[in-house]
Every structure is written in structure tokens, then in C-alpha cells.
């Protein structure tokens, strides 16, 4: 990164990291556990799951497991990787309870939790489990109300978290979501090509400026889909993305693409 790039995109100072989202669908838990162990052995930086109650692809009523009980198990089963949800649905749990759950997983993992959260979107989850779906705007407003409660609860718990738990917020809404990122998050997770992400970064930077926050404090994360580092690595790197997350679904959990990204990470960080 050149001097001008570090000035324009101070978040480019973060090292490249690779995440794996182990989608907890269409597989038995033993397969999920083995996948997490394999990812840690490969050298991934973060292992995520997601916070849904039903599969998002394939058989709608297929095998599926719950997010936060799984994270607690991962905290015991892993040693090095950070863990978290990509992302927790704010609607499904009382914010103070969620803060306590996160604090507990933080302690079980010896300080390796990333607290990923978003406003929620998958209507089937809401309908089947009896939550009010409402509107996208209403769910975002609820997230805005929950985040300060979560932060405050962390200061009251005994024992407190082992560290300032990193907060990851997912979503690309420019008026509400990215403003919440500027106010509360350590990591922003988005989707899209380099041009789309560069635009979102610029919007987030403006929110930071308005709130008096250094945009360089917020690590920029993106989903890479089924793309290889040869396809999109440099273009996303050039716009400031530093956490690149591969997704893998059951039942087979192919980690070939993950290995490519981990190798690329090591090459980039060695420069």
C-alpha cells in the first residue's frame, strides 16, 4: 500500500485475514465440528457460523443447528481461531441476555469471540419461531436501540468480558446501518464487487467524520462467494478490504477454496 493509499484508506493498515463461514445446514454436527477443526489446522483466522433456524439454500426443511449454543461448543473445541456469528439476528434475543451470552462465550474461548450482529432479514425464521417480522426500517431501529444496551450490559457483568469484544456489524444500508457501524463497530462486513465496496467504504468514512470517529479503527470485511483470490483478491485489497470470508455448506464442506485464500493471505502479508 502506498503512502497516499494509507492516507485515503487508513483501514488498509490492518493485515489481511481470512474467515470461513461454516454454514450449519445439511450436515450432522460431527461434520461441522470436523470442518472447524480442519479450518483451524489450515490456518484460517476466524470461523463463523450464522444465526438462522432453517437452511438458506437446498432443502428448506433440511438439517440445521442453532447459532449460539454451537459457538459455545466451538469455544471449547478450538484453541487459536477467533469465532463468531456472521451474523447474529438482533430480533431473536433480549439484548441484555445476548450480551451475557457473548460474555460467556468470550470467557470460554479465552477472549476469541467476535460479536457479529445485524438487524435480521429471513422471514421464515420469524414466522416459524413466533417473532414479529415488521419492516426493515423497524428492525434497524431495534438494532440501534439494542447496541447501547449490549455495550452497557458488558460493563455491568461480573466477571466482565476478557477484552473489549470486537463488534462486527453486517449490512450495507447507507443511512442507518453504516451509521451504526461508525458509532459501534470494530468491523464492517459487506457484499459486492470492489466498486460497490469502495462506495460503501466512502459512505462509512463520512459517517465516521460526522461522528468524530477515526475510520481507520474499523476493519473492512467482505464475503468472497465462490471467487478465488486470483479472481478478486487484488481488487478488493485495493479498496481496503482486509478480512475475506469464504463460505462452505454441508454436507461435504469443501475447503479447497479456503486453502487458496489462506495461501494468498500469507503471500500478501509477507510483502
Automatic annotation (TrEMBL):
<dbReference type="GO" id="GO:0008726">
    <property type="term" value="F:alkanesulfonate monooxygenase activity"/>
</dbReference>
<protein>
    <submittedName>
        <fullName>F420-dependent oxidoreductase</fullName>
    </submittedName>
</protein>
<dbReference type="InterPro" id="IPR022480">
    <property type="entry name" value="F420_MSMEG2906"/>
</dbReference>
<feature type="domain" description="Luciferase-like">
    <location>
        <begin position="21"/>
        <end position="223"/>
    </location>
</feature>
<dbReference type="InterPro" id="IPR036661">
    <property type="entry name" value="Luciferase-like_sf"/>
</dbReference>
<keyword id="KW-0560">Oxidoreductase</keyword>
<dbReference type="InterPro" id="IPR050172">
    <property type="entry name" value="SsuD_RutA_monooxygenase"/>
</dbReference>
<dbReference type="GO" id="GO:0046306">
    <property type="term" value="P:alkanesulfonate catabolic process"/>
</dbReference>
<dbReference type="Pfam" id="PF00296">
    <property type="entry name" value="Bac_luciferase"/>
</dbReference>
<dbReference type="InterPro" id="IPR011251">
    <property type="entry name" value="Luciferase-like_dom"/>
</dbReference>
<keyword id="KW-0285">Flavoprotein</keyword>
<keyword id="KW-0288">FMN</keyword>
<keyword id="KW-0503">Monooxygenase</keyword>
Amino acid at each position: 500500500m502506498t503512502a497516499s493509499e494509507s492516507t485515503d484508506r487508513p483501514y488498509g493498515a490492518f493485515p489481511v485475514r481470512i474467515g470461513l463461514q461454516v454454514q450449519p445446514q445439511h450436515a450432522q454436527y460431527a461434520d461441522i465440528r470436523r470442518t472447524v477443526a480442519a479450518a483451524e489446522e489450515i490456518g484460517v483466522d476466524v470461523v463463523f457460523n450464522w444465526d438462522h433456524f432453517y437452511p438458506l439454500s437446498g432443502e428448506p426443511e433440511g438439517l440445521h443447528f442453532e447459532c449460539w449454543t454451537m459457538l459455545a461448543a466451538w469455544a471449547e473445541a478450538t484453541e487459536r481461531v477467533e469465532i463468531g456469528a456472521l451474523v447474529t439476528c438482533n430480533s431473536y434475543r433480549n439484548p441484555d441476555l445476548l450480551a451475557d451470552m457473548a460474555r460467556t462465550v468470550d470467557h470460554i474461548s479465552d477472549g476469541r469471540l467476535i460479536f457479529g450482529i445485524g438487524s435480521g432479514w429471513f422471514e421464515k425464521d420469524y414466522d416459524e419461531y413466533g417473532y414479529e417480522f415488521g419492516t426493515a426500517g423497524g428492525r434497524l431501529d431495534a438494532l440501534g436501540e439494542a447496541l447501547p444496551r449490549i455495550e452497557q450490559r458488558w460493563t455491568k457483568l461480573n466477571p466482565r468480558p476478557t477484552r473489549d469484544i470486537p463488534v462486527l456489524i453486517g449490512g450495507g444500508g447507507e443511512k442507518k446501518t453504516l451509521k451504526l457501524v461508525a458509532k459501534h463497530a470494530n468491523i464492517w462486513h459487506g457484499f459486492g464487487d470492489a466498486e460497490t465496496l469502495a462506495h460503501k467504504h466512502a459512505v462509512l468514512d463520512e459517517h465516521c467524520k460526522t461522528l468524530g470517529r477515526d475510520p481507520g479503527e474499523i476493519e473492512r470485511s467482505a464475503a468472497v462467494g465462490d471467487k478465488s483470490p486470483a479472481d478478486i483478491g487484488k481488487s478488493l485489497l485495493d479498496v481496503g478490504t482486509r478480512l475475506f470470508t469464504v463460505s462452505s455448506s454441508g454436507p461435504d464442506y469443501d475447503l479447497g477454496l479456503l486453502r487458496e485464500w489462506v495461501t494468498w493471505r500469507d503471500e500478501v502479508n509477507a510483502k
